[in-house]
């Protein structure tokens, strides 16, 4: 056998042994085994919550969409679709120590069947999530007072119907500490709502920005046949009565019979007194209670 032929035979033999796994060095084998076992031994990090999602502006959903207004003081929910009242229901919000946060919220997630991953796997039928920290609207027991761990409970039939009504891209939920005396008051309150984590829905005038902590009052100046007509009424009213420039203006759609109107309203602390002054000067105005 020549020297070259002998060398080739040795190379073939070594390659065959390596393919059979007989020549793997012990340290490499241990390292491979450790790499394989490592993902099983190290706890995997929990998935992070999705990026914050802003709700659609209240002004937009009042015109075309679903607006849900919840009063913790009144323990009541009012729902509006395309500006018209869709329905109302009693609620049970968070009890002491687990208060439901006030603010403006989107619908982040919807599930017909859901169980709490915080409170003993408690059932939450027709769940509509408002925050990634466990606040949601869902069907549940209503004792007639705040009793939940922060969620907003509804009667099952109402929760089911509401679940079928809402769409995340066209629904905004406003939770307020203030009492609600009427359906119209719910829309006005929502249009005036502000939340530190949400862009302001209306730009306050200089007088309103300097206002004290006194509660805002709302007055109505006109019922127009279109949003542009309501805007023209507002510009004329501010030109004739500069004291209105510090008010927060809102235009609220309303359907009466088969006809749609746009109510021009303005809010600020002390608005009722201003309304009385406007009426004395011949400008139509009335208080919205």
UniProtKB/TrEMBL annotation:
Belongs to the YkuD family. Residues 66-176 form the L,D-TPase catalytic domain. The keyword Nucleotide-binding does not apply. GO terms for biological process: cell wall organization; peptidoglycan-protein cross-linking; regulation of cell shape. CDD domains: YkuD_like. Pathway: Cell wall biogenesis; peptidoglycan biosynthesis. The active site is at residues 138, 151. GO terms for molecular function: peptidoglycan L,D-transpeptidase activity; transferase activity. InterPro entries: LD-transpeptidase (IPR050979), LD_TPept_cat_dom (IPR005490), Transpep_catalytic_dom (IPR038063). The keyword Cell wall biogenesis/degradation applies. This is L,D-TPase catalytic domain-containing protein. Keywords: Cell shape, Cell wall biogenesis/degradation, Peptidoglycan synthesis, Transferase. Pfam families: YkuD. Signal peptide: none annotated. GO terms for cellular component: extracellular region.
